[in-house]
């Protein structure tokens, strides 16, 4: 499975699962446009990937709570390419604490803005580039917290609200963009392990039926979905929670 002819945008790729995705897409030949809240964070991952021999990787700052920052990210990508084939909405602030009163108003606003408003505005600003692609896919990392009735996480209520907003947005987006050939793919994982993809732990992490979900399996799901023929619209991935 190669992605040499793909141009992939990944938000919040300065660490954790976003970094994992950026490294794997680059290893498979894609041209990668990665963002992080700070330019230094994005450049650090860019340099890691270039150190692996992949030159087609670009770093940008993007604060998903700031509409102007999102617009600048999309404008910056448009200076390098006339199309985007895959947009991965990976960014969303996590807020812990099952007590509604435990978070400040500022934390609540930041959480809702990054997950809800940030996702909507990222898609809005990148949609023209996606529509220039013959194979456009929008992938959103939501969470089991975005599924109706879920209550097993210790995440704050505001995080649940942000993830529910992403669910509602991607549901309607899938229906409205399908006639234009854009596939909208959502993932709803519970907590999962995310070993460093450049460490020995990546290949040694247990992946049996009694083990928690791994980043490796999530990467495999995304690669599988975006590599399918264009008549195959995989709308979502839901996972059993151990």
UniProtKB/TrEMBL annotation:
Keyword Oxidoreductase appears in the UniProt entry: yes
Family: Belongs to the short-chain dehydrogenases/reductases (SDR) family.
An example molecular function term from Gene Ontology annotations: oxidoreductase activity, acting on the CH-OH group of donors, NAD or NADP as acceptor
Keyword GTP-binding in record: no
Organism per entry: Nonomuraea maritima
Name by which UniProt lists this protein: NAD(P)-dependent dehydrogenase, short-chain alcohol dehydrogenase family
Organism ancestry: Bacteria, Bacillati, Actinomycetota, Actinomycetes, Streptosporangiales
Pfam families the UniProt entry points to: adh_short (PF00106)
Keywords (A to Z) from UniProt: Oxidoreductase
